[in-house]
Amino acid sequence: MKIVSVVRGTFLLLGAVMCLAFGGCGSGEGAADSKSGAQTDAATDFVQRDWCVEHGVPESKCGRCNAKLAAEFQKKGDWCAEHNRPESQCFICNPDAEAKFAAVYEVKFGEMPPKSTE
Ligand SMILES: [Zn+2]
Ligand SMILES: [Zn+2]
What's the pLDDT score for residue 15? Predict the structure, then answer.
């Protein structure tokens, strides 16, 4: 009886060591990595490309995502009061503007941006 329990204890210890050696029995870093990897594919790409998918303009210039920028656009007089966004980014009043932003994106990244979702 005593020998059996010692052997069992050794196996448990071995199992624990194996778990540590192979990254926490599959519930550790490996799993977390693949999760964040999937998110990178879908969303983070556009963050890296400085692109506001919702509004079809560079994120760093998006007058609808950034209230501070919006105030600056208003100060410059570049503002469409009717649609509550910068006039230069109002694709309702200036349908050409969307194509211009898209063209800049295409030159930079070799592909068309996704159609803005708004
Ligand atoms: Zn935006
Ligand atoms: Zn407008």
Answer: 54
Report the pLDDT value the prediction gives residue 19, as an integer from 0 to 100.
43
Distance 105 CA to ligand 2 centre (A): 22
81, 116, 70: which is closest to 95 by C-alpha?
A: 116
- Cα 96 to ligand 2 centroid, rounded to whole Å: 12
d(CA 98, CA 71): 21
CA gyration radius for the chain? 27
CA–CA distances in Å: residue 25 to residues 33, 48, 65: 14, 33, 42
pLDDT digits (tens, 9 = 90+) for 60-101: 999 999 999 999 999 999 999 999 999 999 999 999 999 999
Dist. CA 66 → ligand 1 center (Å) = 7
